[in-house]
Design brief:
Distance between the termini: 28 Å
Strand content: 15-25%
Oligomer: single chain
CATH architecture: 3-Layer(aba) Sandwich
Keywords: Hydrolase
GO molecular function: hydrolase activity
CATH superfamily: Alpha/Beta hydrolase fold, catalytic domain
InterPro entries: AB_hydrolase_fold, CarbesteraseB, Carboxylesterase_B_AS, Type-B_Carboxylest/Lipase
EC number: 3.1.1.-
Shape: globular
CATH class: Alpha Beta
Radius of gyration: 22 Å
Low-confidence stretches: 1-32
Mean pLDDT: 92
Helix content: 25-40%
Protein name: Carboxylic ester hydrolase
Structural class: alpha/beta
Number of strands: 17
Length: 533
């Protein structure tokens, strides 16, 4: 490829081809509560501590889109901690998603640096509702909260939840670290992560006005959103701003040390210096030079940064930073030290790595598994891995998918669940997602990266898929588990807390409780030294 890719870019190109107690059913919207605005949808007003906003009542939900939670990060505010927006007094119409943050992904609405907006779906039922805050994925370089498969109307309706989704700064604009870009608190690089914290602080201050309970806030995300959730568990300024967490197909590894390379990852400062050179900012007032560049110029420099290929998954090197302020250590180490002691739900899909195989030429030809082992830097362990994954029996491609899934998603999920379960007082819940999309372009990838999103939000049509009755039922069960965790701090009763070597839930039709995670392969990979911390 001509430029580093977010680990979802090829995958999303493929995709774009194509419970519990709740209020009474809305008219003609029992099974698909996708919001459909019409001319008769009445406005609904709420006053935030920044000013009044006007949303819309749609199918029994109060919906607000594009609420500013921070000032535009432009000018002197670029590469700086998010600031409160300028207070407004006239009602602000919030009926359209805010623009995505600057990115190069095709097919998104026009991006803008004035992107720090969030969205709220709120039930009209009485009482203070639990809150789920969704953080989108996209490899920290693409994606936005307004994507169709993140529409939270169905989830909010079925589970009687307030659901919040948010944009945050991406790529170099979100994660550029340099000594010249040090914040007043001496941190650097975590601008996008600080945006997420600022949104959570907005929730703490304002969600009661939308019918939410600020003492029952759950953070959830998939892919880079899940990595964000893991990182927020460890982040100092995020402590106390959330009370449960769901980590879907993420890990704890994609963070940079400020000054030292770690494994396949360069140091954050090395990436920052390379970006400054690419932007022609090498002398004089470096910060002023960088801030004078257009977002287009910044994105062009970002595209020229070498990708980090960590265990076969190519990532842009624009990642959260262990800066000693926002992050005082690597996420797994901080969780083991007792940070983020909240109930955690964590898991992975059966075929997470299927999305990278075509791009790597792993299509099922003889020798593909061997070549994949070389690509992930495990050539010295090829004999042991061949014996463990049996490509001659399972097939070259499927063996590579299983290895890639174990290395980058499934085994880190188990390790994180074990860390959460054995540290502090809160319980952890481990899951395996084993149901593939039943039809459409998604189905050919197996239980691919992102499959769980279809079932959590219920928008199969976003990937040209028609759910069977079994899939619709499974979607309701998934929504009920996430919703019950948000409300009570524990998911559905049949999902037992995880302890090392203990039970986990396999989502399928039907779902089952099991104890043999990935056939015991994670322990074998650990013994081979192939699971870095």
């Amino acid at each position: 490829m001509s430029q580093p890719i977010a680990h979802l870019s090829w995958f999303l190109t493929v995709l774009l081809l194509g419970g519990c107690t709740a209020p009474s059913d809305p008219p003609d919207a029992v099974d698909d509560v996708t919001e459909t605005k019409s001319a008769i949808d009445p406005p609904v007003a709420v006053t935030t501590d920044d000013g009044p906003v006007v949303g819309t009542l749609i199918n029994g939900l109060k919906v607000f889109k594009g609420i500013p939670y921070a000032a535009p990060p432009t000018g002197a505010r670029r590469w700086a901690p998010p600031a409160r927006p300028t207070r407004w007094t006239q009602p602000l119409t919030t009926t359209a998603f805010g623009p995505p943050c600057p990115q190069t992904k095709a097919g998104v609405p026009p991006p803008s640096e004035d992107c720090l907006r969030l969205n709220v779906w709120s039930p009209t039922t009485a009482g203070a509702h639990a809150v789920l805050v969704w953080i989108h994925g996209g490899g920290y370089v693409e994606g936005h909260a307004g994507e169709g498969w993140y529409d939270a109307a169905q989830l909010a309706w079925r589970e009687d939840l307030v659901v919040v989704s948010l944009n945050y700064r991406l790529g170099l604009l979100g994660f550029l670290a340099l000594p010249q870009l040090e914040a007043p608190d001496h941190g650097t690089g975590n601008w996008g992560l600080r945006d997420q914290v600022a949104a959570l602080d907005w929730v703490r201050r304002n969600i009661a006005a939308f019918g939410g309970d600020p003492s029952r806030v759950m953070i959830a995300g998939e892919s880079a959103g899940a990595v964000s959730v893991t990182t927020l568990l460890a982040a100092e300024p995020a402590q106390g701003l959330f009370h449960r967490a769901a980590i879907q197909s993420g890990t704890y590894r994609p963070v940079l040390e400020k000054e030292q390379p770690t494994g396949a990852f360069p140091s954050a400062y090395a990436v920052g210096v390379q970006a400054a050179i690419l932007l022609g900012c090498t002398q004089g007032d470096i910060a002023a030079c960088l801030r004078a560049k257009t977002s287009t110029e910044v994105l062009a420099a970002q595209a020229r940064l070498p990708a980090v290929t960590e265990l076969g998954i190519p990532l842009s090197p624009t990642l959260p930073v262990v800066d000693g302020v926002v992050l005082k250590g690597r996420p797994l180490a901080r969780v083991l030290a007792g940070r983020g002691d909240v109930p955690v739900l964590v898991g992975a899909n059966d075929d997470e790595a299927s999305f990278v195989m075509d791009a790597m030429g792993v299509v099922g030809n003889p020798g593909d598994f061997s070549r994949y082992v070389d690509a992930v830097g495990a050539s010295a362990r090829k004999a042991e891995l061949t014996a463990l994954y049996q490509p001659a029996t399972t097939g070259e491609r499927q063996a590579a998918i299983a290895l890639g899934t174990d290395l980058s998603f499934a085994c880190p999920a188990q390790r994180l669940a074990a860390a959460s379960a054995t540290t502090g007082t809160a319980k952890a819940y481990l899951y395996r997602f084993a149901r593939a999309a039943p039809n459409g372009p998604f189905a050919a990838l197996g239980v691919a990266h992102g499959t769980d999103i279809l079932y959590l939000f219920g928008h199969f049509e976003a990937v040209a898929t028609t759910p069977t009755p079994d899939d619709a039922t499974l979607s309701q069960y998934v929504q009920a588990a996430w919703g019950t965790l948000a409300r009570t701090g524990a998911p559905i009763p049949t999902w037992l807390p995880y302890t090392p070597g203990g039970p986990f839930l396999t989502w399928n039709t039907p779902s089952t409780t099991e104890v043999n995670w990935r056939g015991g392969r994670c322990a074998a990979l650990e013994s081979l030294g192939l699971l870095p911390p």
